[in-house]
Amino acid sequence: MKNETPGPSAPPDETLATRLMDALKPLVRNNQAEIMALTAELDLTLSQGRILLELSKAEEDLANTDIATRITLSVAATTRAVDALYRSGLVTRREDEADRRIKRIGLTNQGRAIISAIMEIKRRSVERFIAALSSDERTALDAAVNTIATLTATRWPADPDTSMSSFREPRA
């Protein structure tokens, strides 16, 4: 239950959500072709790309079961994808120090370079968008970004791997 009811001029939540998603779609789609070309060139599957991304966000090497949970894939399918990434030299695999039955998976320098290349593609895409804006439009965008950053910092889970169900309602 929300602590606050929208004012008379506030749009319904679902309308605002749709408008925000629609507004961001061009920024996301603008770089998808370039990212897909890079992953195709590297012969990466979607699951393998998701694994690399999750490993890049992790503070330590992850077990296959942890990776599977984060990307919502079966452990068997995750293991197959990790094996392919290992053979390609994109991830490391080592025994867990506490339990030798568990294999810990981490990124190699080559794996980190792929994630960096993808992030660079995304950054350049957004920079092209911003470069096309007038000074007033950049100022308005800056204010909107600040608002979104503040709202997500105060109401969104601190752990980016936490599900939407953990969204924090505003405090009274």
TrEMBL record:
Protein name (database record): MarR family transcriptional regulator
UniProt cross-references to SUPFAM superfamilies, sorted A to Z: Winged helix' DNA-binding domain (SSF46785)
UniProt keyword list: DNA-binding, Transcription, Transcription regulation
Transcription regulation keyword on record: yes
Matching InterPro entries: HTH_MarR-typ, WH-like_DNA-bd_sf, WH_DNA-bd_sf
Gene3D superfamilies: Winged helix-like DNA-binding domain superfamily/Winged helix DNA-binding domain
Start and end residues of each HTH marR-type domain: 17-150
Organism (species): Acetobacter fallax
